[in-house]
Amino acid sequence: MGVNRRSFIKYASLAAAGNAAALRPFGALNALAQSASSYKALVCVFLYGGNDANNTLIQFDTAGYANYASVRGPLAIPQSQLLQLGPLPNFALNPNLPDIQTLFNNKNAALVANVGTLIEPTTKAQYQAGTDLPTNLFSHPDQQLEWQNAAPSGATATGWAGRIADTINGSYNSGASVPMIASVAGDTLFCNGSASTPVSVSPGNLGGAQCSEGTTECGAQLATAQALLSFDSGLTLVQADNSITGNAYNYAQTLVAATKSVTPLKTMFPANNGLAAQLQQIAQIIQVRAALGVSRQIFFCGIGNFDTHSNQLALQNGLLASISPALAAFYNATVEMGVQSAVTSFTMSDFSRTFQPNSNTGSDHAWGSHHIVMGGAVNGGQMYGTFPTLHLAGPDDSGTNGRWVPSTGSVQYAATLASWFGVSAAQMPAIFPNIGSFASANLGFV
Asked: How far apart are the C-alpha atoms of 276 and 302, rounded to whole Å?
């Protein structure tokens, strides 16, 4: 049965909230803090539906703000409410991102401007000529997949995190008892490798476990899983695909053993916040990294729905108000564990939205977007990439209503993170096939 674009966004958003259980092995835990040593982790925060970057990062100088207010009209946020960035006084953040402002001003977060899916560096003229463009621009499902696989088309079996695991897992996690990659937002292309399998974690949903086998087998296996995971964290084991069910329970036993000498993190995560629950789960897994035998881990989480075709101010502001304290709590947890310089978090999203509002006090699908990178290893307090010229039908507008042609490819963004994580220059082409089309594979933000 086909899934239309609206339904796809609905399902993606449910998964991002931790309500869609994946049919892969997954464990959840909370355990003793370990030393960082050579450990590194990447944490992807996917903003499902297409976050409006134009109302996330805003020009704050007199002329820039006047242009913004004039074009955005009903979507314009009053300048007095914006959060000016100390190191970048001509720019400000959405008023619902105070924690990100603090992290940026303290140089623990950076901004990467006008990033989008590209096959090669692309100009407005090339776009209008239809030259070497990604597949199905402005389409939610296609652009979500293309961000997750860093490829010209969404039609691949693997994502860029999965290919990293395929390439370097043996070098860094040879004695690991769990896979390199864990998702707390259901099955995603980002996590899939050809030789590696992720685990999938759903925080706080023990009663909602699902099984992919027959009723009798499911009952027995889920009873076993429930017995194995009868600890106080309230987290869930969802069982494996048929071919890896045995591994699922091995993972469960390993994780339960790790939790027996638990010292809960003191960092408080916001209550009633789906993204915070996911990030808290990730922090708990990081906490027992040594017991799991991993020195490299990649995590995927997400939040939605940013598909704000109407009533954008209320919807987006509410979502950003959830993101800000959740990311801050996660950063504080890494500080508590002493791994803040070993954990780098970053946002991805389908695309940005049109600078020009539509007739429903919303905005429509666009292209180049701005993203947040956070962590102690980040070269923070700076903007990377090139901020677009915000003029309708201007040099950076692919058309006439403010769909910015990206100045930085999502593959460059991903390759920069991969390089920090431990992927060598020689290994890059196998993970990012079109990275050679760009002058730089490292943007320098981490």
From this structure: 10
